[in-house]
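Here comes a specimen:
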Amino acid sequence: MQDHERRVLDWLAAREARMLALIADLVNIDSGSRDKAGVDAVGAALRRFLEDHGVACETLPLAAYGDALRARVDGPEAAPILLMGHRDTVFPKGEASRRPFSVRDGRAYGPGVADMKAGLAMNAFALAAFARCGGAPAPLIGLFTGDEEIGSPGSRPLIEAQARGARAVFNAEPGRPSGNVVTGRKGGVFFRVEIAGVAAHSGVNFPEGVSAVEELARKILAWSALTDVAAGVTVNVGLVAGGQSVNTVAPQASCEIDLRYVEPADRDGLVAAITRIAERCEHPRARGAIAIRGEFLPLAQSPAAKALFDAYAGAAAQVGLKIEGEFTGGCADSGFTAHVGAPTLCAVGPVGGKAHSPDEYLETASLVPRAQALALTILRLGAA
């Protein structure tokens, strides 16, 4: 192992306690996707850490969502390597005080501890390691965004811009409970549907009404019929609301739909089918409207991405990790970077599980080895 590699790996090996301290700071800040102040507070904590370690940072402002934070460690003129992570969580305001960061029996707990505040800390320490230990073999860009859990509506253009021309992209979503990384993900499209009916008294003049709830019920059955589990296509109506009162023919109803698919070629046909069902009503006086509220693109493993995985798995083996690739039905920002042609590897963050639940956990023993595997991969890519 070369001297530069040894210095970087040794620097990381000595900092497990400090990694945990930074994760604790981040977890104990509420940062739900719609909580701009909280998401920005997490960004400020990361910026303080990075600048204290000699890493240059800049804020990329977003009016409606948490600002993006971009960090940079200079390297020889070459295509940059991008390290990504999102600062937002799915949890409501106050969750951090109800369930603050804690460690028990080798696992850390708290809202967003694995998804993905541990990954943010790992990326920050990787950037700091290169800044402190002789520089990077290629320019390193750290991009810390704030709206991934709602489809990255503000951050997607920034992510795609940073990924274009990148030599490699590492997304620090949590490593799988198996210890593996993610080499493939489904795409996802998220819709909101509004149905307008006609109100009427349910006892006095029932025939004059048009039930939006009844229209929506028929549509739900039609949408569900589009599901093809064998092909990796699922259509889930996850939220439903409607009606005015129990004795009123419902004048309105609404729902939200989650579409998942594997093959990029399937996307347009499925969206068109869902849209047709939404807009065509059985009763001539009912109306349906649909809008896409968010979208993720699928992550498919290109030949360049396969080579990147092989490089990562080889580096991981040198620090004692056996890594394989997994496919998951979950979506992530890695689909955007793959879409613009950047070789991408996802879920390189520390290992955790049960994300989005009160039982979410982080395997603390995975912090240093996963950071070392990432750093060694970067060093080997630069050497190549």
Residues 205 and 249 are 9 Å apart (CA to CA). The mean pLDDT is 97. The two ends are 15 Å apart (CA to CA). The first helix runs from residue 3 to 13.
